[in-house]
Amino acid sequence: MIPHTPSETPPPNLSALAEDHYFSANPPPKDLEKHIALAKDFIDFHAAAGRRLVLVTSGGTTVPLEKQTVRFIDNFSAGTRGATSAEYFLEAGYAVLFLHRQFSLLPFSRHYSHATDCFLDFLREGPDGSVIARDEDAGKMLHVLRKYREARDKKMLLVLPFVSISDYLHELRSITRLMRPLGPKALLYLAAAVSDFFVPPERMSEHKIQSTDAADSVLQAKKKVAAATEEEETFDNFDSSPKVPRSKRLVVDLDPVPKFLKNLVEGWSPEGMIVSFKLETDPAILVHKARYSLDRYQHHLVIGNLLATRKWEVVFVSPGNPDKWIRVPRNKALTGASPSTASPALAAETQSDEPLDPKSL
Ligand code: PAZ
Q1: Which site in 26, 204, 262, 332 is 20 to 30 Å from 48, CA atoms measured?
Q2: Which residues lie within the region annotated Disordered (predicted)?
Q3: How far is the CA of 333 from the centre of ligand 1 (A)?
Q4: Is the pLDDT of residue 24 over 70?
Q5: pLDDT at 14 over 90
Q6: Is the pLDDT of residue 355 over 50?
Q7: What predicted TM-score, i.e. pTM, was given to this entire model?
Q8: What is the mean pLDDT of the chain?
């Protein structure tokens, strides 16, 4: 393990004041009130039944560059981990509130997503002109269909979308606060890939950022200035960047996204069980970063994974326990198996050599 160095001293916890500032400065998503009402009904329904409930977050958040957004920075995540894990939680009897990036993978339909298996490839035309599943695929399709219908008919799954980082944080705060009365029956499984940097609203352009001055209302005046500067244009040749005049570049200046996990652990969901994920690309720092996150936020479990190997290995880092690697053979990791056809495992699409029970976390 790499020891903490003084330069890694964590910043002070984000105060209630800073939290209020972020949430008042960054507007909520337009459907927040509707989502809160749906989430409240869902949580109350399952609380009354004494059922355990998990909030699964899934997919990547965007960082808009413009208020009327044309361009944005995205965060890697297809939603495979979240959507697969949601199916496992349903199988284990949890009600699942699935907060996901709009258009990322969803539980059940992920088996027939455009990215891997287009649903049209599983269908054929029947003799009477009807559409039916191909014989070789019908068994699996029927299984997935039944599981999907069961979850839907028993109201076990609520699916809510987000897009941007501020949408996500508003939704997360509202939903986890609603889950508070569930006490330890609430599980938060934070698999979404959340942006670390953003453009604060006061620096964000209202309209699409222009690459030319063609639409400029003070075109003539600007053109004269531009023509004058063009001749003595600045080129930053001291770095390895191409010879593009500085005036034609887009320099994006990002602030760090406030770290809200501490606020979540201490304020929004003090009794809930909280599992976060840590994605890295450098194997040398993964476990260290996961342990650091656990020490800093004092929650229950960090599941670490590497971009290149995330489909077949993860590491569980929890307080007072040695790091636990869970690995599956590579050829089994991408089969898209559903819980009833694979041994149960909590960590998304992986199957453990030792089956894991969410209750034992
Ligand atoms: O969605 P996916 O299956 O393509 O990827 C899952 C993941 C790598 C985004 C997830 O396992 C994860 O690590 N989420 C946290 C990412 C982060 O460190 O912000």
Answers
A1: 262
A2: 336-361
A3: 15
A4: yes
A5: no
A6: no
A7: 0.85
A8: 86
Rounded Cα distance between 278 and 292, Å, is: 11
Q: 4: exposed, middle or buried (C-beta count within 10 Å: 0-12, 13-18, 19+)?
A: middle
The preferred substitution site among 58, 172, 305 for testing ligand 1, maximizing ligand atoms within 8 Å of CB, is 305
Where residue 223 falls among pLDDT bands split at 50, 70, 90?
Answer: low
Instruction: Write the pLDDT tens digit of every residue in 37-66.
Output: 999 999 999 999 999 999 999 999 999 999
Neighbour-count burial of 226, counting CB atoms closer than 10 A to its CB (0-12 exposed, 13-18 middle, 19+ buried): middle
- Pocket probe for ligand 1: among 172, 277, 289, the residue whose CB has the most ligand atoms within 8 Å is 277
The best mutation among 310, 314, 326, 350 to test binding of ligand 1, ranked by most ligand atoms within 8 Å of the C-beta, falls on 310
Q: From the CA of 165, how far away is ligand 1's center (Å)? A: 15
